[in-house]
Input
Amino acid sequence: MSGALFDQEEGTGPGRGGQGRPGGKGGKGGKVLAGLGLVAGLLVVGVLVAGLWVKGKIDPSGPPGEPVAVTVPEGSTTSEIAELLAAEGIVSDATVFGYYVRFSGGASFQAGEYTLSRNSAMGEVVEVLDAGPQITFDQLTVPEGLTLEEVAERVGEVERFSAERFAELATSGDVRSEYQPDDVDSLEGLLFPDTYRFDETEDEAALLRRMVELFDSVATEVGYGSTTPPGGLSPYEAIIVASLVESEARVPEDRGKISRVIHNRLEEGMLLQIDATVIYARGGQRRPDGRVLFSDLEVDSPYNTYRNPGLPPTPIAIPGRASLEAALNPTPGDWLYYVKYEENGAHAFSETNAEHNQRIAEAKARGVNP
Output
């Protein structure tokens, strides 16, 4: 009985022990594995959270904010640019942006002016920086009929330009038109009226050259380089005629007729007697009512066509294309006179002085100040 009991215990003991020992070792191992699994899970969660955090930094929620002008200084490193962008609120984290640029293949951003938006995605920021700095343009509109002095004044309205410098260059003879005589240094009348856009790399000389080049191009297109002007005038003299037409005409249909009056008077040896030349001789000073008085006609100047025969020595204003064309192609007619006849500035044209005086009386009777 006892042996059997012993045997049973021996038999069962080792059997239980054999079952228990593996079972005991399995419990500790499970705890280890469970611990490792927990750590792994926490790492996964951490990676996911970190990834989401980084993603939020790279691609922030919400629309981009207000535009910001940013200047990237010369010699800036990527880290310095990142700090600049973060300080302006364009990117949310300078360090993340630095790594983003590095892992995106790196970049060497140019110094200059950029416009970026606050709360931007880093990819969009890199795209703008990769494209290079923005070039800002100034704009200047130069209408027909201005004198060189008036053009210079307009140029001087651009903040970084000087009217005095422009005028000096335009009268120095250093920049020349192909239609400019050798003995004339002034570019009066040889700049083309247009709207000019220019960037920060251009100075007064560059702008002046563009104005002259455009004038030469248009004048050549119109025929100044290939057509003999009426009356045997030189191309430069025809440009002077164009400037007179530009200064006198107020409606398009009058340009060709005014040109014809000028050519007819030159051929007849008559004084041109053009009010615009007197105004130019007086330094461009116009009276409030626009009239030219008899006392004004006595001004001592080679530009006073009431006293001096022929054309003035230079153009008196910048002509547009239409006036350049009119000077070369005057409307056929025998007119020798014209006078302002309508309130819109349209003129009446006459062949005789008597007819001209009658037109003056008619204009006054209708309340038009000729």
User: Anything to note?
Assistant: The mean pLDDT is 85. The radius of gyration is 43 Å. The beta strands are 67-72, 112-117, 137-141, 195-199, 337-340, 347-350.
